[in-house]
Amino acid sequence: MVLKKYNINPDLALERQKCTFDIEEIINIFDGGKEKTSQRRKIEDVVLKSGLCHDDVPEECMSLKERYENAVRKSCFFSKLMKTELQEITGIEDFETPAIRRIADALFKDISPFLLHLGMFVPTIIGQCTSEQLMIWLPKALDLQIIGGYAQTELGHGTFIRGLETTATYDADTEEFVLHTPTLTAHKWWAGGLGKTINHCIVVAQLYTKGVCYGTHLFMVQIRDLDTHMPLPGIKVGEIGPRMGFSSADNGFLGFNNFRIPRNNMLMKHAQVQKDGTYVKPARHGKLTYQTMVFVRVTLVNEAAFNLSKAVTIAVRYSAVRRQSEMRPNEPEPQILDYPTQQHKLFIGIATAHAFQLTANWLWNTFKSVLSDMKKGDVGTLPELHALSSCLKAVCTSDAALLIEQCRYACGGHGYMLSSNLPYIYSFVAATRTYEGDYTILLLQTARFLVKAWEQAEAGKTVTPTVSYISRSLKGEKNSWRSTDEGIIKSFQAVAAGKIALCVKSIRDRMKSGLDYEDAWLLTTVQLVDAAEAHCRSVILETYCNEVRRLTKSSSDNVKIVMHQLVTLYLSYWTLQRTGDLLRYSSISEKDIDFMQRQYEELLQHIRPNAVALVDAFDLRDEILHSSLGAYDGRVYERLMEQAENNPMNAEPVNQSFHKYIKPLLQGKL
Ligand SMILES: CC/C=C\C/C=C\C/C=C\C/C=C\C/C=C\CCCC(=O)SCCNC(=O)CCNC(=O)[C@H](O)C(C)(C)COP(=O)(O)OP(=O)(O)OC[C@H]1O[C@@H](n2cnc3c(N)ncnc32)[C@H](O)[C@@H]1OP(=O)(O)O
Ligand SMILES: Cc1cc2nc3c(=O)[nH]c(=O)nc-3n(C[C@H](O)[C@H](O)[C@H](O)COP(=O)(O)OP(=O)(O)OC[C@H]3O[C@@H](n4cnc5c(N)ncnc54)[C@H](O)[C@@H]3O)c2cc1C
């Protein structure tokens, strides 16, 4: 759609005059410096000027088939643009560039069918191939001579990877693997792009050689002819059907009938099968084939932050424009943003987007540092990364989904319109809570790490920094509540330590009563999930505070003030959400809670004048927001009417169904 130009809505113009800080300063902080902001804007200019974002009819008014075809068209031209002009600007060839990720949303209101190519296929090649394999597949994948996906999940199993049924049996005579789908439930299911788009695929299958099963391994499989795009003989492939979102991403199913691939198509960086069928197990760590999942979990924290920033931008701008009800008799209707309950719904969204973005950046740096350790042969930091990326992926995607839905509630009936974009943003983020490891499953992985850390600390061993609070707790350090940043973080750590201690105790008590470890663990899993969530909260709170302090060191006083107001709001909000836990595990008193409640309500008032400026500081162009409610000019009603008028349903004054059904019904002739 071409966005019509309107003058700024007067309410929104007034809001912007109230701003107390330099918006550009905050934009630069989140981009990583002035230069990066300027580079991002250049990239956005090129993509927006390319005309690629244009749709003849709104995406939501297209059929599923049309949406898919439109998304493929855009993906192809966008890929070409990335290889030409965008590469010149960025000087980078990669898929990591946050600016590319952001502007991709200007093209796809839903998502690109190529997402998994960049999001998982290329990263798996980079992380799992030998250098010889890398030289064969990486240039082709980066150049889009081959397009790929990641097929792990099956109809019968997603979470439990060890339970996957697809087999890859080595045939030493021909030096090939035979891929086979032995049952209905063994069919690959869900892989993005698999339904219609891709011609190659990373397949996760149980490896058999010399009659022994060595567990799941990764294989590069060509599934379609490069010229005709027909499925190769022995391959059954198709689209799984309509779903809540991801409508343009052609999630697919895949079955193999004794399909043969060369030995070299097993990704052999970590484990190998030699020509004679001898299996060589990974030298350093048994779970290195799970590395792409760790990578995506890390990027999903960024997705949570980015999508929440979009939703809250839409809802705050709308709330500044929307007037409803009256605060006092005969007074003009106020902007709904003036209601403290509305501020309560929205300002936590702004603070959370900051918290998650800074946590995502920190996690990304941690990921890079662990990768560099691993390149030197040291896998010692991997368990902590796995524990961190698991809980942060779980909690950030889950919180973001809840807050995005809250943004929709904050926009009343108009938020329910697809043209608000809130339903799309929600359905995308809701899926992130499930895929790449369901919420509960990932928190249980973190819980394993926490229980182990507890046992190590008990044995007097040093534990990693993110769990050093466990050692303090075991030394008997009592928590004394202080309502400062550090004080609150320490109390949240005391909550996490208290919950981990209770889990350890429950497991031990259950074992004393005769249960084996597995049953004792199973019966404690409700508490274990809770403990892992509490640990994750303390990590987010600490990272957010530390990062704001570090990044605003040389900022103007006004930026420091407003960024810190949001930190305090976040800390107060979570304190009030978790009073039960804090009363149990810290020395917080009722008086302290009253103080925190008052502080929270005062902060809403302090932040109110800067609310619109704070969402402007996410610097999200209208073309990325795709929202009738959230455009920079605030012309909500004009856009809603424009969209209604453009609705294909209104192209004819009388729909044919009137003549076919309604009229005969009215006339008693049906
Ligand atoms: C145009 C666009 C521009 C740019 C795009 C760029 C980015 C895009 C942004 C978006 C993201 C991209 C794509 C998104 C779209 C869709 C993606 C969806 C893809 C998928 O969903 S793929 C399928 C994912 N599936 C899962 O995640 C399954 C979850 N299950 C598991 O991970 C495992 O089964 C398990 C961990 C639950 C259990 O595994 P297990 O049984 O093998 O292991 P154990 O529980 O017995 O544990 C043993 C031991 O191993 C440790 N462990 C487990 N996992 C790991 C790991 N990953 N790393 C390190 N260690 C691990 C575990 O802790 C145990 O250790 P211990 O010491 O013995 O306790
Ligand atoms: C939009 C979308 C895109 C996807 N894209 C891909 C893709 O490209 N490639 C791919 O391979 N996969 C993909 N998936 C699949 C995805 O990774 C899985 O759906 C996900 O990992 C969850 O697994 P599951 O469906 O088996 O859920 P299940 O494991 O069946 O979960 C169902 C419920 O059971 C609970 N549960 C399961 N096991 C346990 C346990 N041990 N303890 C306690 N509770 C348990 C879970 O918490 C959950 O509440 C995609 C999924 C979606 C929704």
Automatic annotation (TrEMBL):
Cofactor(s) it depends on: FAD
Keyword vocabulary terms for this entry: FAD, Fatty acid metabolism, Flavoprotein, Lipid metabolism, Oxidoreductase, Peroxisome
Gene3D superfamilies: Acyl-CoA dehydrogenase/oxidase, N-terminal domain, Butyryl-CoA Dehydrogenase, subunit A, domain 2, Butyryl-CoA Dehydrogenase, subunit A, domain 3
Location of the protein in the cell: Peroxisome
Any Pfam family: ACOX_C_alpha1
InterPro entries, sorted: ACOX_C_alpha1, Acyl-CoA_ox_N, Acyl-CoA_Oxase/DH_mid-dom_sf, Acyl-CoA_oxidase, Acyl-CoA_oxidase_C, AcylCo_DH-like_C, AcylCoA_DH/ox_N_sf, AcylCoA_DH/oxidase_NM_dom_sf
Protein name: Acyl-coenzyme A oxidase
Organism from which the protein derives: Danaus chrysippus (African queen)
